[in-house]
Design a protein that fits this description.
single chain; mainly beta; nine-stranded antiparallel sheet; two-stranded antiparallel sheet; 13 strands; about 0% helix
């Protein structure tokens, strides 16, 4: 397995209120197909954050509201195939065969797929960070949506090739959900501390396209 990767990351904050983050990465591998369109598919993300508690009009609320920030992020991530999943050329394996010359024959263990590429996911994220009463109550609320395309799986092909399936990119998937993280310091004394942490999440997963299925699957 051989990988060549290029990576860049940048961030900038203005007046401690507005933050911009961006990242970019490009990976090339012999696990992908030989087609250039399959190789050159970079992943990247862009994020914005607005810290409201740094605004002048929030000064009067600071004894009660210590932190209030809004976040928004969009990006594309990738998932490469595992070694042996597929190849840009047919991979042959030797097997014992008493009827073949020399007592051995060759069979195709991995069929070539020149169009094999990343499994790509588009990520949408909205978040709220908060802290109240000298941060005795703090946490975050997240809403996300993930749309995955080119799922790695078994792709149906013409059976005249000698098989009915090949490993490749097939189908689409969508995830939407909400996550809540809440921390509280209920009692804080010199020799005693009582704190709690609450996490809640909800996720809906839907397969929107998968091979020859006539209708989507919802779980």
């Amino acid at each position: 397995s051989r990988f060549t990767s290029y990576y860049a990351n940048a961030g900038y904050t203005f007046a401690r209120k507005y933050t911009l983050n961006a990242s970019w990465r490009n990976d090339q591998s012999n696990l992908f197909g030989i087609n250039k369109s399959a190789q050159r598919r970079p992943v990247w993300s862009v994020g914005l954050k607005w810290t409201l508690t740094q605004e002048p009009w929030m000064e009067k609320m600071k004894p009660t509201v210590n932190l209030l920030a809004l976040r928004a992020t969009y990006g594309i991530t990738g998932n490469s195939p595992a070694p042996g999943f597929a190849s840009s050329k047919d991979v042959l394996a030797a097997t014992a065969d008493p009827n073949a010359p020399g007592g051995s024959s060759l069979s195709i263990s991995t069929l070539a797929n020149p169009n094999l590429t990343w499994e790509r996911t588009k990520n949408y994220n909205l978040g709220l960070d908060f802290g109240f009463l000298n941060n005795r109550i703090n946490g975050s609320l997240e809403f996300y949506r993930k749309e995955t395309s080119d799922l790695l799986g078994r792709l149906g092909i013409n059976p005249l090739t000698g098989t009915t399936f090949i490993n490749g990119n097939v189908g689409s998937l969508r995830n939407t959900g909400i996550e809540l993280l809440l921390n509280t310091r209920n009692i804080e004394r010199k020799n005693f501390l009582w704190s709690t942490m609450l996490t809640m999440s909800y996720n809906k997963n839907k397969v929107t396209d998968f091979g020859y299925l006539a209708a989507p699957i919802t779980t």
